[in-house]
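fyi for ur records
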Amino acid sequence: MAYSRKRGNSYLLRQSCGYDMNGRQIVKSMTWKPAKGMTDKQIEKELKRQLVLFEEKCNSGQVLDGSIRLCDFCDIWMKDYAEKQLRPSTLSGYKGFLKRILPALGHLRMDKIQPHHLMAFYDNLMEKGIRLDNKYKCKEDYCQALRGVSRRESFAFRLSRLCSSLYPDSSLPVIDCTKAEFARLAGVSVGTLEAMTAGRNIAPESADNICRALHVPIDTLFIPVGNDDILSTKTVQHYHRLLSSIFNTAVKWQVIFSNPCSRTDPPKVERKEALYLDEHQAARLLDLLDDEPEQYRTMITLLIHTGMRRGELCGLEWSDIDFDKGIISIRRSSIYQPEKGVFTSDTKTPSSHRVLKLTPDALAILRTHRAEQGRVRLSLGDQWHDYDRLFTQWNGKPIYPDTLTSWFHKFVQRNNLPPVSIHSLRHTNATLLIAAGTNVRAVAAHLGHAQASTTMNIYSHAIQSAEAAAADALQSVLTQARKTDAG
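which gave:
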C-alpha cells in the first residue's frame, strides 16, 4: 500500500513493488506538491486521491523512477515516444546519435547524471578520431575506368571485370546488369554508385555492400578517409538537443525532477552564411539548363522558383498542381533509407503543408514536363508504374532523391558554377525574395518555416542588405524632396 511523508512544502509518495532478483526491495516514489491556496482539508483529501492513483500506476507498471539507467530509459523513450512522434528521417538520425551517447553515458542512473558528465561527453566529442561516420573513397584508377563506361556497356560488368583482373586465379563472378539492378543487388542507391564513380566519399556500409556483391575485400576498391576529422560544434549541439529531449520527457514522466541539460552549456556554434546564388548566377544557371535532360531541367527550375525542399520536390504528385489557378500544394515528402528504400513521409513540420503560387516560367516548364512524361508512359505501356509522381525513374517509380543530388553536383562542376548544393537553391529562392522586398513573414510561410524567427536567423545577411537598400532609397527620396522644395 502506498504511503506518504511530508517533506517541506511537498509530500513524498512511496510504494513497495516487491523484490528484485538479488532480494533487494523495489520501492517506487514520487513527489506531490499541493497547489497554492489549498486548505488543510483540501490537501488531505487530494493527498489521499494522489496516493490511490500512485498505487494504481505502480501496480500497472506505469511508474518509473530515477534509479533507471539511461540506456534502459532510452529503450522506453524510443518505443513510447520517438517511434510514435518523430519523422522516420529524424528517428534514423537519433538512432545514430545514440551509438555514441549510450556507450558514454548509458550506464549512469538517470537521477545521478549531472552537468559535469555532459560537459565531459561534449569535450570527448570534440577530440580527434571520435567520428563514427568515417567514409570510404573509391581508388582513383577505378574511378577513371568507371567514368569511361559507355551507355551500351554494363557498369557492373566493367566493375566486376576490373576486380577479376586483380584476382586472376580466382573464379569471381562477372556481373552483367544495369546500374539500377546492381544497386538493388548491392543494397545501395544509384546515387551512391554515382558518387563512388565521381570519386566522392561514401558510407562504410555502402562500400562494404558493394564489395560483398562483387565478392572482393573492401580494400580492393576503396581507401578509408577522414579518420583524423573531428565533429563540428553544430553536430555536438545536435547531441545536446537529443539528450535534452530525452531528459525533458523523463521530467514529464516524473522519472527525474529536472533536466541536467538546462544547466549545461554546449560548445557555441559558429554561425555561417547560407550558401546561395545571386540573381545573375541564378539566371546563368537557368540558361545552362537548356541543354540538360528534360526532367532535371524541370526539377532545378522548380526548386529555384519555389524554394521547396528536395524531399518535397520528389514527393510531388500531379494532383498537387492546379494549372488553372497556377498553384502547387506541398503535402508530403519522399525519403530514402537503406533499410526501407524510397518511401513517402509527411512534411518536415505541420507548417510545411502549404500552397505556393507558381511563376509563369514554372507553369510553362511543368506543362512541357507533363506532356513529355505522358509520351514516355505511352511508349512503355505495361512497364510503366503509375504512381502519379511528377519526377520518376525510367519506369514511373518514385525517383531516388540522391539521384538528383548526384546529377546536380556533376552539373555544377561541369559548368564551373559556385560550389552550391541542391539545398542552396532553397536559400537562393529565399534570398531573392527578401532582396525583392518581400515581407519576412511571407517568406517564412513560403518556405514552410514554423516561425519567422527561423527565417530571420538563417537569412540575416539578406535582411540586412535589404534594410540597407531601403535606407538608401529613403535617403534618396528625402534628398530629392528637399531639393525640389528648395528650388
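The first helix runs from residue 40 to 59. thats all i got for now
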